[in-house]
Amino acid sequence: DVKVTQSSRYLVKRTGEKVFLECVQDMDHENMFWYRQDPGLGLRLIYFSYDVKMKEKGDIPEGYSVSREKKERFSLILESASTNQTSMYLCASSRDREFGYTFGSGTRLTVV
Amino acid sequence: AQTVTQSQPEMSVQEAETVTLSCTYDTSESDYYLFWYKQPPSRQMILVIRQEAYKQQNATENRFSVNFQKAAKSFSLKISDSQLGDAAMYFCAYRSFLQGAQKLVFGQGTRLTINP
């Protein structure tokens, strides 16, 4: 069964900490994505990557960075966590634009 | 830029009845893909159904079907014979047909409750 795995289901961090959210896919997909999900706002794209070491900003990249050193792994980095980054973070991967995404099960991050 | 709007934050339906979730979108493109995703309490997003804009025939997957009105830019999801397991957040999403355009644009979501 193909999978997108997010390393943590729940995470609590302090303001100012550097936070790493990890995502691994086993489908050999080229494209990987990080979204945040907030009530009433749906899913908003933070960053995506279409190849190793390649990254593109999404709609809300401020305060975030990403790393893709290997095809299967796409990391989201909060350089200095703030309370307004408390959210659900969803990772996804995709083979091609005619297909939808395969999602991970999400990381609920709380910044205190 | 493309936008997707789901105007119903919450819907409820009696078990075994039919419910329709609304979605409209805005685009200047003629070819694109549309999707409905389901997110149950487990949080795992699951693809429910997919529609290619160049296909006139509405997509169907078992109890799930869509009403795709290209001119009206409308893409509603109909769930027939609703079951308790259908309770979830439902998201409508748009994806461009353009080469290199990979991202999905999501609506705000509709929370569906099934009443036994």
Question: Please, could you describe this protein's structure?
Answer:
- The complex is a heterodimer of chains A (112) and B (116).
- With 112 residues, chain A is mainly β.
- Chain A has one domain: Immunoglobulin-like, CATH 2.60.40.10.
- Helices cover 0% and strands 53% of the residues of chain A.
- Chain A has no helices and twelve strands.
- In chain A, a hairpin with a 3-residue loop joins β5 and β6.
- The relative contact order of chain A is 0.33.
- Chain B has no helices and twelve strands.
- In chain B, strands 2, 5, 6, 10, 11 and 12 form a six-stranded mixed β-sheet that branches.
- In chain B, β8 and β9 form a beta hairpin.
- At the A-B interface, β5, β6 and β10 of A face β5, β6, β10 and β11 of B.
Features:
heterodimer, A: about 110 residues, mainly beta, Immunoglobulin-like, three-stranded antiparallel sheet, B: about 120 residues, six-stranded mixed sheet, four-stranded antiparallel sheet
Write the layout of secondary structure elements.
The complex is a heterodimer of chains A (112) and B (116).
Chain A: E1 4-6, E2 10-13, E3 19-21, E4 23-25, E5 31-38, E6 42-49, E7 56-57, E8 64-70, E9 73-78, E10 87-94, E11 102-103, E12 107-111
Parallel strand pairs in A: 2-12
Antiparallel strand pairs in A: 1-4, 3-9, 5-6, 5-10, 6-7, 8-9, 10-11, 10-12
Chain B: E1 3-5, E2 10-14, E3 19-21, E4 24-26, E5 32-39, E6 46-52, E7 60-61, E8 64-69, E9 74-79, E10 88-96, E11 104-106, E12 110-115
Parallel strand pairs in B: 2-12
Antiparallel strand pairs in B: 1-4, 3-9, 5-6, 5-10, 7-8, 8-9, 10-11, 10-12
Biggest sheet layout of chain A: 7 strands, mixed
Largest Cβ-defined interface: A-B, 24 and 28 residues
Strand content of chain A: over 45%
Oligomer: heterodimer
CATH top level label of chain B: Mainly Beta
Query: How large is the count of helical segments of chain B?
Result: 0
Indicate the percent of residues in helices of chain A: under 10%
Compute the number of strand runs of chain A.
12
Question: Share of helix among residues of chain B?
Answer: under 10%
Count of DSSP-assigned helices of chain A:
0
Mean pLDDT of chain A: 92
How far the N terminus sits from the C terminus of chain A, by CA atoms, comes to 36 Å
- What is the CATH superfamily of chain B? Immunoglobulins
> Rounded to an integer, what's the Rg of chain B over CA atoms?
14 Å
Structurally, the number of domains of chain A stands at 1
Q: What's the architecture of chain A, going by CATH?
A: Sandwich
The CA-CA distance between the termini of chain B, in Å, is: 41 Å
CATH topology heading of chain A: Immunoglobulin-like
Structural class of chain B: mainly beta
Structural class assignment of chain A: mainly beta
Taken as a percent bin, the fraction of beta residues of chain B is over 45%
